[in-house]
Amino acid sequence: MPPQHVDRILANGLVLTMNCAFVLYSPGAVAIRAGEIVDVGSVTEISESYQADDVVDCQGLVIMPGLVNAHTHAPMTLLRGLADDLRLDVWLLGYMMPVEREFVNPEFVRLGTRLACGEMIRSGTTCFADMYYYEEYVAAAAADSGMRALCGATILKYPTPDAYSYQGSLRRCRDYIEHWLGNALITPAVAPHAAYTSTPEILYACVELARTYLIPLKTHVAETAQEVTDNIREHGMRVVPWIEKHGLLDARLIAAHCVHINEDELNQLASAGAGVAHNPSSNLKLASGMAPVRRMLETGLNVGIGTDGAASNNDLDMVEETRLAAFLAKGHSGDPTALPARDALALATRQGAHAIHLGDQIGSLESGKKADLIIVDLGELHNTPRFVRDPDGIYAQIVYSGKSTDVVHTMVNGQWLMRNRQLLTLNENEIVAEARDLAHHIDRFLTKRESSPLSKLLVIGGVKQEESFEVQVKGRLGPDALNQVKRALAHPEVTVVKESLYRQYDTYFFFDTVEPDAERLRFREDQIVSERGEVKDARNRLTLIGHSSEREFPGAVMLSRARYMAPADKSLRFYQEYFQPSSTRQVDKERHRWRIRYRTTDFAINLDRLAQPAMPCYFLEIKSRTWSQHDAQRKADLIIELITLFGEIDTVETIPDGYVDLDHEA
Amino acid sequence: MPPQHVDRILANGLVLTMNCAFVLYSPGAVAIRAGEIVDVGSVTEISESYQADDVVDCQGLVIMPGLVNAHTHAPMTLLRGLADDLRLDVWLLGYMMPVEREFVNPEFVRLGTRLACGEMIRSGTTCFADMYYYEEYVAAAAADSGMRALCGATILKYPTPDAYSYQGSLRRCRDYIEHWLGNALITPAVAPHAAYTSTPEILYACVELARTYLIPLKTHVAETAQEVTDNIREHGMRVVPWIEKHGLLDARLIAAHCVHINEDELNQLASAGAGVAHNPSSNLKLASGMAPVRRMLETGLNVGIGTDGAASNNDLDMVEETRLAAFLAKGHSGDPTALPARDALALATRQGAHAIHLGDQIGSLESGKKADLIIVDLGELHNTPRFVRDPDGIYAQIVYSGKSTDVVHTMVNGQWLMRNRQLLTLNENEIVAEARDLAHHIDRFLTKRESSPLSKLLVIGGVKQEESFEVQVKGRLGPDALNQVKRALAHPEVTVVKESLYRQYDTYFFFDTVEPDAERLRFREDQIVSERGEVKDARNRLTLIGHSSEREFPGAVMLSRARYMAPADKSLRFYQEYFQPSSTRQVDKERHRWRIRYRTTDFAINLDRLAQPAMPCYFLEIKSRTWSQHDAQRKADLIIELITLFGEIDTVETIPDGYVDLDHEA
Fold it and tell me: pTM for this one?
């Protein structure tokens, strides 16, 4: 039979197929046509069966599948080294989120992805699984660089740089998927950020998208012990059962991290055919813990290796990550035979491809798979000598002594992306220059911000972000206010869940430099009192309040956002000295509070009487919080209904956030 | 004042002094004369005060102290990748020790050190603390390459490639120290390998050497949990109190590993001013555990970072090792603020220098210290972008994103060892070619050996090496043998410690391919019997026996060596099939055994009567074991005395190892 014609033959290298049998060819060759691997074999076999105009001599080099980075946030490479060695809350709320809010836009995402792709192509990664905002720009930039990528559009309950609400994110995501579905390089995916940053509605909607379009669903699972504790406290179960309950295990799930999962959860994930992305560097650096990788593999889970974002790692070096995975599995299990080099490299290639549900296309050098491969030089001093007695020694050499800088050529889909360590699809100097400019702007922004109340609050610790949306209405009532409220709450559609009496002593701190998300800080001492006026308990809290009003609905119903709360275990004096407000103001009141349910929806009813500044009237406040923009609208409508139950109300007015602005009129 | 003349000025770089205050100069400069740092400061300060013919422009680069590798075994770089992912006993007894025994000689040590130095110079290490055999050749090769090194000559109780006995090692060590003391680059040191591979005499002798010459003493301390358990069982205390008891804390101690030390031990080491070499990669890869680095630092210990030997790590990359130290400290403590990048880099430089007792000479860029420094390019993609808001961000960039391949120039003692990534003192091609040749020989040796009885025995597990030296004498006694022995043991200089009766069923396995240290394998079933002949207990053991006789002392006293023992929990049939001996031979006997003390020395007295092959006479055997060559000689002398106590003995003859060769005459 005459030899078949192919586009290209890579010849004379040591070929690591990384197939299930770990077949090696030495010297071997790979025949490539139309972006696919036609055949892999010994040099003799391939040269007898195929001919090509382009025969690449790989003498002395290793030909192997490109590495699969199973979890990253490519654009965050622009935030590499922004802030390190910090507590997670300080890092996230103090640096990442404010910077993302301010800087993340399509240009940022495009540049960050180009930077990430350049670094990954250099270090031998040919495919990455991503999760970020404006994911359509990640997809476009990755495709432009020639890389293969699974790009997950992030959905979370907080407002994001690319959407005002999660409903907006879901809409964007659907458009994005429809646009990219079927692309040769890009696999679109939906990425609810994590169970704890989602509502059940978000999770259901994401599963629906994933099942409609038959695309992967990528999410963070049980990254920290805190996440598990919180999930048990709030939902009575661990994280995997919780996401299973919301259908995530019915999708092609990619579960990033899985540091804190138990045997049952391992089995649940395995039965569902889920993939796990193991991120050893990130989990160590953020002190999240050490994932039970060995048990995962014993359970038959498909485990891939991920670098996570460079903002936390701080690089995208899969060679290093694979080495660390192998080292850590041994150190963690106490068994030096755990995760040997060959198996670790399989995680970074074939199994990683399966973990991100692309195992039928990539991850090994086999006929019919895509020509995604790298060619590696093991001739440097740090790789000397080389023992050949044990053919498997080559895996130890790559994993334990190899460096990502040993990669010489990188190919994706049959196209060279790097030859002789020169990037062919990206302009490095341009990327470096643009990234440097951006870093300069971010530096200036953060320098200005580092003395902000939010930054200072974060340093104290325990800060939590409240629900994104608060709807409320206020009105004045006359001397019969209490009876008026009681009559209203007797309405058959109202159920009183809880009733309490408080004395609230609020001190508001005002600042010269006002930030949109941190206009004023409130120190509140909440005294819980009995009906006879005896103090039963007290608690102190700090609340950082942003825009007092973001939007008004009809009927003076207000919507506000962006509040951060923290427990206050020190004295008011301490906080005054620590935050150094330019002025303060005091508001003291008695509050009678009912937590009610009206038409299956929860509201708080507050009846307030101000002592300082003293006011003759009562104030009625009806409010509710939610993560959902639609839900905020619905609740605003219900509030307008509710207020009619209270009969005559003097005025329904716009009194934002406490009564701190009232004294002007008092 | 006119500017002073210096040899060289490194100008316009970002200078990290790594001094105690972590002072940075940006742009900064370093003035160097006669191998020493004359001054460090801003470019303006240095250019006003100094002039030089050679001004090196370091624009856009970082100038920092060279990295200090606080623990390695440089020549073992030649064994990199020889065998990985194995149990420690299999790795050590099955690969490292046989290969070292066969191949380690001055040429091996010289080549391995050159290879190691090349890799270290490339990756930014300017000084390393070593421990190996033929250490004088390590010292010479390191000095030839221009590197600074602390070279510890290894002493252990086993025979070593460079000495027949530990007495020989100690003699070599003294000569070596006297030759190198006062060298500009080399600090000689004495290195008892570890407490568990030393005898008290070895430890005392090493401390004496260290104190006589005021040199550091380097040893492995509490590397594995097993070591601690064994030490407690054998000596009733943990490892640090044990070495303290033998004076090691009175020397300038460098304690490598310290993975399993408790608070008391931390404090003991700290009060003694000891240095600790932390080897995170090696400890993970060999599954030894995770050292309590954070607690060490809180206790005020000087901790350095080491790569350990490349046979276990598998590289000498201090950048990677420093990153892992920082990551692991966080992951292990559960605190992401543990060991921040700046502190981690201090361990790799200034504190590492203090840990190896060279802190007054190197480790930081300060006036009067040696000009040991590296110049690093942080302009690559994997280091982009760079944030400058926080001046300390530079440490995170180097430690978390940097690669050892970012090092551009390396200088030791004012001399360039690498410029623009080209080694100046070593011929890389030559080293690679020679190492490749050697690897080929080692591969052949191991291939031949991989089916050897010792290799197979190691796979079974539980193998221990017996004391190096066994002295024994045998003689035949007539029918009154028992009374003859009893009379002898009644001698006032003899104390009987224990008396037992055995039936011993020995099966000897013989092999076609005989190795010097594995001539035959014995499967022994030892039945312990009562005086009335009832079997009370039984145990089975495998013993691999080397040269039947290595040397004869006067009076037919024999010395033999190299025995490996393992418990045998499977059947004789299993071992026969597993080891596939070419022939076997059976020796059954009754043994009456007395453990006695004669002139304060322990001996075993065996009175044997052979059942198979049946022999009419009794055999008397007197034997003792020891780690010490001198002690073997002394015991041989005592045996000659002892034998006279037994009165008339038919013949005193050479019957090695059991009675397996007797049947020829029977």
Answer: 0.86
